[in-house]
Design a protein that fits this description.
119 residues; two-stranded antiparallel ribbon; elongated
Length: 119
Amino acid sequence: MWYRTSTADNLQTDPIVDRVINKFHDRSQAGIKKYGTMLTRDDLSTLDWLKHLQEELQDATLYIERLMIVNKQIERVAVHKFMRALNITPSSKFEITDKDGNPKIILVADLLKETFKQQ
């Protein structure tokens, strides 16, 4: 496939766009095979199409939530591996300086609570 770039005379293909278009095509073929119809069908009302869209968006929201949970789990594992590598435990303490230059003792467990608190 060909797309215009900022140079009017120079046509180039964009591999990312091609990849997405191919995925749309593959998805269309899978839908035709599974349901025996295409999006050009005329047996659904506007409300039916909106319901289909709503269900797809609900599924997408569930997928996002799942990935957010998995990502948080991956972060926790990485933090704990990092702590083990540095021989740090939740009871370890660090001295930091606040914005006014005053020293403050921070417990690693408190940092972990703040980092991984539920939203």
